[in-house]
């Protein structure tokens, strides 16, 4: 049993809420249109890279047969793939998806939910996951933490 309680709402729900707020702010509270097509199409690249990063990182959990949902029992400490450059590549993938959609809109208002999403994920998941992994893997996780940054 983990030392951290499982959350009833998982990170993908936070992503969907973030995407909803990006759209709502762009639609109803456009602050400043900083760019227009075709430059806004760079957002598609960010969204695709974010989806790829999150999917590949989740796939490593599935292949390793360890808990994918936050605070599931962890049997393996993943340090390969995107986990070589970030301890949280699935969350970075989600941030890139939000950023990509905001860039597609090209509106400053659409960017506002991104730092809120980052803080929510950090406070609701990352900090607890770090305690959980330290308890589960001890010095192995502490060594990994010294080598690899939380975000990038």
Q: Shape from CA axes?
A: elongated
- Low-confidence sequence ranges: none
The biggest beta sheet reads: none
Structural Rg = 17 Å
Which percent bin holds the helix content?
A: 55-70%
Give the tally of β-strands. 0
Strand content: under 5%
- Structural class of the secondary structure composition? mainly alpha
Oligomer: single chain
First-last Cα distance: 30 Å
Counted up, domains total: 1
Discrete helix count? 5
Compressed to H and E, one letter per element, the order equals HHHHH
Would you write up a description of this structure?
With 152 residues, this protein is mainly α. It has one domain. Helices cover 61% and strands 0% of the residues. The chain has five helices and no strands. Helix 1 packs parallel to helix 3 and helix 3 runs antiparallel to helix 4. The radius of gyration is 17 Å and the shape is elongated. The two termini are 30 Å apart. The model has no long low-confidence stretch (mean pLDDT 93).
